Automatic annotation (TrEMBL), chain A:
Protein name: Ammonium transporter
Annotated TM spans: 6-31, 43-66, 104-123, 130-149, 161-185, 205-222, 234-256, 268-286, 292-310, 322-342, 348-372
NCBIfam families: amt
Keywords attached to this entry: Ammonia transport, Membrane, Transmembrane, Transmembrane helix, Transport
All copies of domain Ammonium transporter AmtB-like, residue ranges: 10-400
Subcellular location: Cell membrane; Membrane
Annotated source species: Christiangramia sediminicola
UniProtKB/TrEMBL annotation, chain B:
PROSITE patterns named among the record's database cross-references: PII_GLNB_CTER, PII_GLNB_DOM
Pfam families (alphabetical): P-II (PF00543)
The organism of origin for this protein: Christiangramia sediminicola
Domain of life: Bacteria
Family: Belongs to the P(II) protein family.
Entry-linked PANTHER family: NITROGEN REGULATORY PROTEIN P-II, NITROGEN REGULATORY PROTEIN P-II HOMOLOG
Record's protein name: P-II family nitrogen regulator
Length: 408, 112
């Protein structure tokens, strides 16, 4: 049995590494889809999220999210990490799939992701300090409490709510905060002028493309690791459904946006892939390949409509984070009640209840954080700073000093 | 000596370059520029249509002796022409002096 544990644990650590790599994917995607003058600011935020996120998850997040026996709503098992011991050495009976340490690190890599989603949506205009405070509170407290409701064995878990790898627990949690943040923050200067919707084309499509391919690779770990062991049948099925949904999401989004706008838009193609990935995440181990393709393809169409909807209601989301992570996250969560092994009316209603509970805690939590900051220290940079770029004002440097010809 | 500056379409650059070589204009400088003009370019980005007057062109700077002026300009007018709005402009100005750094030749000799 110890050989099996070793294999399971090695797979889980590989997945941990893959999820870690997703942070590079997010960073590249975000800077690719925004303007050159804010590149360093976005990189700074992303690096802050992964470093601070891990420390916070070690300090309190892990024990808030997995408190052991608790009342189902909120529990806390104490500060810091303390490995369970058996006969003075690490208790290998902790779990059949992984050790205590692997458990912490794998979950820790997930935790920071929720804040990274927000980073893209608020890009190019949020104050760095305010964003960092938000990250500490959201990743440190809200994300783990919300997570404990399902993955920690809380009340939604007992109710039968299903979220395999985090369409809701990770992606919607980030997506709700992104939505609240861009609403309180307002649009970038010039995005909505004289009643017309403006466009700020991203400055680096190779980066955006690399970011999405890296995220897709990372998803092998995000979903593959959420099997929580190296179970041959489930891990391989999960990787198949994950990849098929990604491919279907991309193709559907590309075809739909091309028909709609008569333009081959790489950014929609890329967002479609992510939409498919987010969509399949809630039920990646419960779907057949056909289900996965359908879920992904519908997510791809949702992305195109979602991006247009966000523009239509005068919210400014430079990278499409709300459409990808929130709308497709909700879609994926509900899809568990429509497709696959768990499909059924009761399951669908349970999924709906789960989505509503997460909407409540995330909207209230992120609203409180952002609103209090908005009326006290402020959340938005000055118009001058926004126009000239956050890089030069917040960080005192250019992202590409040798290529300064066409800054805008 | 004259300096001929021409702003032309990138799509006509290769043809223009060959035509200039053919009449004996063997060296000149060029760089890519962005400007605004009468032409508007329509784009779609993430479902949002927008048009911009920012236009990408290539800027040529050619210094020739007076005797070369006419045929150089004629060549440019012919080879950079498409007949659509946005074909570009040509400016001619006088040059006081020219030197070749290696040989220290000056005037027309330095342009050969």
């Amino acid at each position: 049995m110890e050989g099996l544990l070793t294999i399971n644990n090695v797979w889980m650590m590989i997945c941990t590494g893959l999820v870690f790599f997703m942070h590079l994917g997010f960073a590249l995607l975000e800077i690719g889809l925004t303007r050159q003058k804010n590149t360093i600011n976005i990189l700074f935020k992303n690096i802050f999220i992964i470093t601070m996120g891990l420390l916070l998850y070690c300090l309190l997040g892990f024990n808030l999210m997995y408190p052991g026996e608790f009342n189902g709503f909120i529990g806390f098992a104490g500060f810091g990490l303390s490995s369970p011991l058996a006969d003075g050495s690490l208790d290998l009976a902790y779990n059949e799939g992984y050790t205590y340490w692997t458990d912490f690190l794998f979950q820790g890599m997930f935790a920071a992701t929720a804040a990274t989603i927000v980073s893209g949506a608020v890009a190019e205009r949020i104050k760095l300090n305010s964003f960092m405070i938000f990250v500490v509170l959201y990743v440190g407290i809200i994300y783990p409490i919300a997570g404990s409701w399902k993955w920690g064995g809380g009340f939604l878990d007992e109710m039968g709510f299903y979220d395999f790898a985090g369409s809701t627990l990770v992606h919607s949690v980030g997506g709700w905060a992104a939505l609240v943040a861009i609403w309180l923050l307002g649009a970038r200067i010039g995005k909505f002028k004289d009643g017309k919707i403006g466009a700020f084309p991203g400055h680096n499509m190779p980066f955006a493309t690399a970011g999405v391919i890296i995220l897709w690779l990372g998803w092998f770990g995000f979903n593959g690791g959420s099997v929580l062991s190296a179970d041959p049948e489930l891990t391989s099925l999960t990787l198949v459904t994950t990849c098929l949904a990604a491919a279907a999401g991309g193709v559907a989004s590309f075809i739909f946006s091309t028909i709609l706008y008569k333009n081959y838009d790489i950014t929609m193609f890329l967002n479609g892939i992510l939409g498919g990935l987010v969509g399949i995440t809630a039920g990646a181990d419960q779907m057949s390949p056909t289900d996965a393709i359908l879920i992904g393809a519908i997510a791809g169409v949702i992305i195109v409509l979602g991006v247009a909807l966000i523009d239509r209601i005068r919210l400014d989301d430079p990278v499409g984070a709300v459409a990808v992570h929130l709308i497709c996250g909700i879609w994926g969560t509900l899809a568990v009640g429509i497709f696959g092994n768990l499909a059924g009316f009761d399951q669908f209603i349970t999924q709906l209840v789960g989505v509503a509970c997460y909407a409540a805690i995330c909207i209230v939590g992120s609203f409180l954080i952002f609103y209090v900051m908005k009326v006290t220290i402020g959340i938005r940079v000055s118009a001058k700073e926004e126009t000239e770029g956050l890089d030069i004002h917040e960080h005192g440097m250019d992202a590409y000093p040798d290529f300064g010809l066409k800054q805008q | 000596m004259k300096k001929i500056e021409a702003i032309i379409r990138k799509s006509e650059f290769d043809e223009t370059k060959e035509a200039l070589h053919a009449i004996g204009v063997t060296f000149f400088s060029y760089w890519d520029v962005t400007g605004v003009g009468n032409e508007k370019v329509g784009h779609v980005y993430r479902g949002v249509s927008y048009s911009t007057a920012d236009i990408q062109r290539r800027y040529l700077s050619i210094v020739v002796t007076d005797s070369f002026l006419e045929k150089t300009v004629e060549t440019l007018l012919k080879s950079a022409y498409t007949g659509k709005v946005g074909d570009g402009k040509i400016f001619v100005s006088s040059i006081d002096e020219a030197y070749r750094i290696r040989t220290k030749e000056k005037g027309g000799e330095s342009l050969k």
